[in-house]
Amino acid sequence: MEPEPPGASGPAEPGPRVRGVRGAAHAASASVLSGAEAEPQRCALAVAAVLPAGGSGERMGVPTPKQFCPILERPLISYTLQAMERVCWIKDIVVAVTRENMEAMRGIIQRYQHRRISLVEAGVTRHRSIFNGLKALAEDQPHSKLSKPEVVIIHDAVRPFVEEDILLKVATAAKEHGAAGAIQPLVSTVISPSADGCLDHSLERARHRASEMPQAFLYDVIYAAYQQCSDYDLEFGTECLQLALKYCHVKAKLVEGSPDLWKVTYKRDLYAAESIIKERISQQICIVMDDEEDVGRLLEETLKNELNHVKVTSGPLCHAGRHLHQIILEQCYSFVCVNVMTSEFEETQKLLNLLKESNFSILYPVVVISVHFLDYKSVPFDRKMENLMQIRELAKEVKERNILLCGLLIYYPQDEQKLQDSLRQGASLIATFIRERNSAFIGQLLIA
């Protein structure tokens, strides 16, 4: 048997080998991606989760298994793990991965500081991978530090947008009924072809539903079902709820799911997932500036008027970064740093240093826009431009920490109407960079 890393636990052969990997304490940003402001719901049950992640991703059409495909330079499975581990009442999360991907998975857990994760070797099929995950949670596994849960949640590693609300619903329904699963209305009508390739019959769409994940079970029910499974079930089956019905005579409670439960299956789904993540982390902008900066206040008001759907807050860098820490807790990944009273990049440099020290940018790219104002009467344009071109070197340095930096030079004329036009143009450029997080802007000095 392969030696385990320090702190790992695993059952002896012939059961699946479990490698426990515990990340370091999460940064403050590792809480919920959406709905972070809400008080977390509690579940009185002892709950664990099993995520099969041994697929090859044939339908994706790329050499990398889809669960490891990057989205914003971070593997897809990391987003799913974050969604599960942010739920404090899920005690253990068991991930089934193939032997050849075990080291890569361990690296993902360590790099992104995931917690409560244990790894088990995947089987050759989805059902065999789930069974291995369930075995890792069984009471009869020697040397395992995992405890048998009352309820186990089964979820796909490539469904990254699952929310705590639906996890709680299926877990509590499983406690009452023995099994539960998320469903959604069918989008397309299901038809059955005949042997000669012609239509045999179709199903009435209104009477049927699509089975989704997550699903939850009393652990004893689903474990007993898998122990009784035939080889045919383990090789060709995909529906866990059906196994509970077939072998344990437990009828699952069906819970209406949300559209966010969709599964990343095809290459185009990666782009859709990236778009959703960008939209979610672009819903808040923090403007870092001195309370006395009048032009900064004008920029703030312009952003609020131009971006009605985005929460815009402001404040100074003070008290050793306590204000910034609060912003981090509120899940803000977009910063506008106004430089007026200080030297060209002093405030921006302070902000960048605080962000680097906080380790905040591990999970999502953080956008920082360094804003500078130009009054032609006080500073020649050429000199101002020359001073601001150091943005390139700063951007190159912080990009390694997943911080995307660009500069914005706003013309500050005496004419009020021209000033408003400059501010609106600047707000538009800020919104574009924050929304797109486009690498083409990194290190650039935009001019409004």
TL;DR?
Residues 1-23 are annotated as: Disordered. It contains 14 helices and 18 strands. It is α/β, with parallel strands linked by helices and 448 residues long.
Total DSSP E strands: 18
Count helical runs: 14
State the helical fraction.
25-40%
How are the strands ordered across the major sheet? Answer: 1-6-5-2-7-11-8-12
What is Rg?
26 Å
Q: What is the CATH-assigned architecture of the largest domain?
A: Alpha-Beta Complex
Structural class: alpha/beta
Quaternary form: single chain
Protein traits:
Spore Coat Polysaccharide Biosynthesis Protein SpsA, Chain A; alpha/beta; 2 domains; 35% helix; nucleotidyltransferase; Rossmann fold; cytoplasm; disordered N terminus; six-stranded parallel beta sheet; 448 residues; eight-stranded mixed beta sheet; transferase; ISPD_C
Please provide a written account of the structure.
It comes from Molossus molossus. The protein has 448 residues and is α/β, with parallel strands linked by helices. It has two domains: 246 residues, Spore Coat Polysaccharide Biosynthesis Protein SpsA, Chain A, CATH 3.90.550; 166 residues, Flavodoxin domain (Rossmann fold, 3-Layer(aba) Sandwich), CATH 3.40.50.360. The chain is 35% helix and 21% strand. The protein has 14 helices and 18 strands. Strand 3 and strand 4 form a beta hairpin. Helix 9 packs across helix 14.
